[in-house]
Amino acid sequence: MTNWSIIENVISDDALFQVLNYLKEGKRIDFECALRCMISDDIVALGAMADMIKREIMGDSVTYVLNHHINYTNVCKNSCSFCAFKRKPESPDAYIMNPMDVALRLSGPELKDINEVHIVGGCHPELGLEYYCEMLDAIRVLRPDIQIKAFTAVEIENIARIEGISTKSVLIALKERGLKALPGGGAEIFSERIRNRLFPEKTDAGTWLKIHEEAHQLGIKTNATMLFGHIEYPEHRVRHLLMLRDQQDKSGGFQAFIPLPFIPPRNNNNGYIQGPTGMDILKTISVSRIVLDNFPHIKAYWVMLGLRLTQVAIHFGADDIEGTVIDEKIAHEAGAGTNKGLTRDEIEAIIKGAGLIPVQRDTFHQEMEDVSG
Ligand code: V47
Asked: Which of 208, 324, 330, 347 to mutate to test the pocket of ligand 1 (most atoms within 8 A of CB)?
């Protein structure tokens, strides 16, 4: 039984008493209530509520995965203003990896312990379905033990457009070649006005959600993200969370939600915003945990949060910190100050240093047996 009453003593923003009452009564947090949370500065109370929910699901445990992030191309037909990773095909530092090279990246002896690969890339204007199938085939041959989480809904839509087939047909073909899960990227913020300003060519909210629904119907698990701390208002964040919650009610295949704090691209000097404060990041993580009552997991992505804030975030509702990553590019092109990867020992030290228990998981958030000795 959750002892919600102890939180009454830490609430300093009266508006949060209603939120606490909803939680006590097991009522769903509605738009107004969620907005109250999102505009409140009482992060101690929000964090305490979120931590209570996290502890009901996970206790003192915080999970991580031994994985490798691979970005097969930086060529992208889109021109999202927040993205520092994209390149035009004619750019001198544009690259496309061939499918076998993607698989070979996973074959070194130092990578024998990893059990997940996370693969995403730009929306290349010409790479067709065969390229992606060859990549999955090559990985399955070289590393049949690795679970493949790959290609955002945005890439799935791009492949479907190039091939002139449905997004569902693309998902079916990729599933047959071993795709196990979709990452949550490319959702950005579900607002048509903001999309028009920041990422006009990118998959719209309805299509992004439809592709995830199709994946869920096919038994492919997915994640969801939200890019925040740019030009959006608290209302946009709340609407984004509620749209995800509604989708999860319908199709049920989301595993984790990952709030992504905007990192202002360092070489973009057009008076762009600074990105969210540490306080705003913690609040957004807590509110996500409180509102997304049907999402099993909330991830604090250490790459974008920094290691110290990650340690706090796992006391503010997050129960997972992603993984070893090894060679992160998207956040680092923008100027992330973290390492491009961490070892298992470093990840475990972050979690233990926060007074919590590190647990290695697989792509489906199942606990792995400890083979480290
Ligand atoms: O899709 C791009 C975002 C995403 C910036 O599903 C930026 O398990 C902040 O989706 N500042 C990629 N964010 C990361 C991502 C992800 C990471 C870890 C795990 C999972 C998962 C997903 O990063 C992109 C975009 O939404 N992004 N540029 C930026 N300047």
From this structure: 330
Given ligand 1 and candidates 64, 182, 202, 227, which is best to mutate, with the most ligand atoms within 8 Å of its CB? 227
The neighbouring-strand residues paired with 182 are: 222
Answer yes or no: are the C-beta atoms of 236 and 187 closer than 8 Å.
no
Report the topology of domain 62-360: TIM Barrel (3.20.20)
0.85 exceeded by the pTM?
yes
Neighbours of 179 (CB within 10 A): 25
β-strands 297-298, 67-71: how paired? unpaired
Transcribe 270-292 into DSSP letters: SS------HHHHHHHHHHHHHH-
Q: How far apart are CA 47 and CA 53, in angstroms?
A: 10
Q: Ligand 1 centroid to 185 CA: how many Å?
A: 5
10-48 pLDDT per residue, tens: 999 999 999 999 999 999 999 999 999 999 999 999 999
Could you tell me the residue ranges of all domains in the chain? 5-53, 62-360
**Encoding tokens for residue 315?**
């006391």
- Is any atom of ligand 1 closer than 6 Å to the C-beta of 227? yes
Q: Which residues pair with 150 in a beta bridge?
A: 119
Average pLDDT over residues 171-196: 98
**Rounded to an integer, what distance in angstroms lies between the CA atom of residue 260 and that of residue 185?**
9
- Rounded to an integer, what distance in angstroms lies between the CA atom of residue 153 and that of residue 282? 27
